[in-house]
Structures are given as structure tokens and as C-alpha cells.
UniProtKB/TrEMBL annotation:
The keyword Oxidoreductase applies. This is SDR family NAD(P)-dependent oxidoreductase. The keyword Flavoprotein does not apply. InterPro entries: NAD(P)-bd_dom_sf, Sc_DH/Rdtase_CS, SDR_fam. It comes from Nocardioides panacihumi. Keywords: Oxidoreductase.
């Protein structure tokens, strides 16, 4: 199961997992996109809004009694205001999708993951869940939430046959992430990656997720921080300007 499989990291992960031999369930709101990808990779599309309890219940019903892998990837950043000028609705939405949505999907699919006997959960966090940066507080708070929920779940499931892992990417150049964050402003979105000759791309993260879930069942990759070589730290990015 890959949530947020309609674009970017989620779509690339669905492809990678299908290549690895999994039957992939693809969840997202844009059903046309997940249906197209599902037919390409032989998977199953399930229209889902992870923030809706009813929608997530329908997702669990579609999956059935057994699930081997859950990739909680649906998420994103909305806005980049300072705390002084924060939009409460943006903050609510970020918490809804990155934390509550992840919880709802996990809660609903946990019985099926346990029934697998060797379940694996990968939560897609972010380096934003490790640090702070100006204008990022709504997103960094939400992604710190993703990290802490992951750690808590691992403690709670310590005697159960399910791995609980997190991947925390730095700068990944996907088609929509920055565009969504800046409300469709293409110039602002392009500026994020300006001069970075080789940012990570969605498939780099998908490759890492596929590696994590295909380790033997006793190997738990607690946390994998993954950044482009050009990003030594959140604020220290090598950009080539002419
Ligand atoms: N790009 C980066 O630099 C970066 C870095 C670190 C972490 N991340 C994290 O990686 C994940 C994927 O990011 P991306 O770069 O691939 O961005 P993206 O292309 O914008 O993908 C976001 C995905 O989440 C889905 N989604 C959003 N809200 C949803 C909801 N309520 N219910 C179901 N699905 C929902 C979207 O699908 P629909 O709109 O069709 O529902 C879309 O498929 C996110 O969790 C993001 O925070 C990204």
C-alpha cells in the first residue's frame, strides 16, 4: 500500500515496489492518476482522502485481511509564512495530512499488517522533522510529528511481527511538492531548486524505500536520512550560479 501514489515519491515508490514483485494498492485523491498508474504496473487504485475516517475505512476494506507493506507517503507543505504571519488553516491541513492521516491509515491497516506475519511500515518524514528553518514552522512541526509517531509506534509494537521505519528525505525535486507549498507559484517553486545541479529525484527515495522493505524481516531501518550531496545541511546548499 502506497498512500499519495498519484505523483512524486509515492508514484515512483509504487513503480519500484511493483518491479520488486508486490501487488501494489495505490491511494490518493486524484483517482484518474492512480488508475492510470495502477493499470501500468498491474496494481489496484483506491480513491482515498487520508484525512477522512470514512475514506480510510473504505481503503482498509479494499485491501482485505492481509497486507505486507504500508508506505505512509501522503503529505506535504502548505505555505511558508513566519510564525508571526501564520495561516492557521495551512497549519491545520499540514497536521491533518502528515500526522492524523498517517495515524488513521496505520490504525486501519494494522490488523492486516500483523496478519502478514512480517509486516513493514515506512513513514515518509523529512529532514524538516529534524531541524527548524525560517518560514517552515507549520511543516517542521508536522514532520517532527511524523517522526515521533513513528518512534512511539515502534515502542508500542515491540513484541509484534511488524517493522516500523521512517525515511527522512532532504531536498527532492518532484513536480508538485514546492508548487503545492507555494500555492501554484511556479517561480517560487523553481527557486527552491535553483542552481542545484543534482537534487534528489523521486526515484532516489523510492529506491531507498524498496531497499528498506526488502531487508529480512528482522532488520528494522529505524530512520534513514537521505539528502543530495549538494545539501550538506538544510541551510547549506551548493548552488551553481552564472
Ligand atoms: N519533495 C521533497 O523535497 C520532500 C522532502 C522530504 C519529504 N517529502 C515528503 O514526501 C512525501 C511526498 O512528497 P512529494 O515530493 O512526492 O510531493 P507531491 O508530489 O506533492 O505528493 C504528495 C502526494 O500526497 C497526496 N496527498 C496529499 N494530501 C492527501 C490526502 N488528504 N489524502 C490522500 N493523499 C494525499 C497527493 O495526492 P492527491 O493530491 O492526488 O491526493 C500526492 O500524491 C510527502 O509526505 C512530503 O512531505 C518531500
Amino acid at each position: 500500500m502506497v498512500t499519495g501514489a498519484s505523483s512524486g515519491i509515492g508514484a515512483a515508490t509504487a513503480r519500484r515496489l511493483a518491479e520488486a514483485g508486490f501487488h501494489v494498492f495505490l491511494a490518493a485523491r486524484r483517482v484518474d492518476r492512480i488508475e492510470a498508474l495502477a493499470s501500468e504496473i498491474g496494481g489496484t487504485a483506491v480513491a482515498t482522502d487520508v484525512t477522512s475516517t470514512d475514506s480510510v475505512a473504505a481503503l482498509a476494506a479494499a485491501v482485505g485481511p492481509r497486507l505486507d507493506v504500508l508506505v505512509n507517503n501522503a503529505g506535504g507543505a502548505f505555505g511558508s509564512s513566519s510564525v508571526a504571519e501564520a495561516e492557521a488553516e495551512d497549519w491545520r491541513q499540514m497536521y491533518e495530512v502528515n500526522v492524523i492521516g498517517l495515524m488513521q491509515v496505520t490504525r486501519a491497516l494494522l490488523p492486516a499488517l500483523l496478519a502478514s506475519g512480517a509486516g513493514a511500515i515506512v513513514n515518509v518524514g523529512s529532514t524538516a522533522g529534524r531541524i527548524a528553518y525560517e518560514g517552515g514552522a507549520g511543516y517542521t512541526a508536522a514532520k517532527h510529528g511524523t517522526q515521533v509517531v513513528t518512534e512511539t509506534l515502534r515502542l508500542e509494537l515491540w513484541d509484534q511481527p511488524v517493522r516500523v521505519m521512517e525515511i527522512a528525505p532532504g531536498m527532492v525535486k518532484t513536480d508538485e511538492f514546492a508548487l503545492v507549498r507555494f500555492g501554484g507559484d511556479a517561480d517560487k517553486a523553481a527557486a527552491v531548486y535553483q542552481g542545484v545541479e543534482e537534487p534528489l529525484v523521486a526515484d532516489d527515495i523510492a529506491d531507498a524505500i524498496a531497499w528498506m522493505v526488502t531487508r529480512p524481516a528482522h532488520v528494522n531501518i529505524d530512520s534513514l536520512v537521505i539528502k543530495p550531496r549538494a545539501q550538506a545541511a538544510q541551510h547549506k546548499v551548493h548552488r551553481v550560479t552564472d
